[in-house]
């Protein structure tokens, strides 16, 4: 499913969890694994003014950290491991420079920052990578050394949701996970439009058929346990904060959405909302570059 995985790492516990998950993915998919660390140039420049030798010391420390991650990856069965150390703005350097340089098709980063309302608020670096990346992005929040046990795929009938479904199924097959296929009938549509009862029923029936079609495909491909659910409400709230919590989901897989000529693919509000609010890992799936609008 992935050929080159780039994991953005530092010495935080969040990054260590992300690294271990990246190792698991690289091992299962026989992918090249790149560990990348970006020294924040803005913060470092002021420090270097007072300590001219700071860069050499920082370089030595971070190279040792990258070597430690490399050793863990090799012990975990990854045969192709590379490292890169750069200075710059981490969120743009990872997404805009390193990802294309190494032809990565998956970026892995840890979430960070605690909040009293959302429980776990994404840090500025992970959020920036998610918004800027052209590749799939995996936001890691929990330890999943043994693989995912429960995977939720958010679907809506779009092409990107179809891609998310394909990758979610592959991950379920790799880990033996139970699969939950969920579609949220956006209640805002009911309040903002005038729909008679017959039209509303037709739309709901169509959504149920879509879910059953997805379930049939997943079972045909070999997934043993598949549950489908049609929910009502705001997708970016219902999926991460209610359904995923109630069913103890380990990973949410969602398609990205929205395109323009400059960024090639902007992050849709639902995908971003899920990524920010979930307390489990989130994989945001994007279309391959060659399939996107020019």
TrEMBL record:
Under the heading InterPro entries, the entry gives: Rossmann-like_a/b/a_fold, Universal_stress_UspA, UspA
Q: The UspA domain covers which part of the protein?
A: 1-141, 148-286
Q: Which Gene3D superfamilies does this one have?
A: HUPs (3.40.50.620)
Q: Which Pfam families match?
A: Usp (PF00582)
Tell me which family the UniProt entry assigns to this protein.
Belongs to the universal stress protein A family.
| Protein name according to UniProt | Nucleotide-binding universal stress protein, UspA family
Q: What organism is this sequence from?
A: Marinococcus luteus
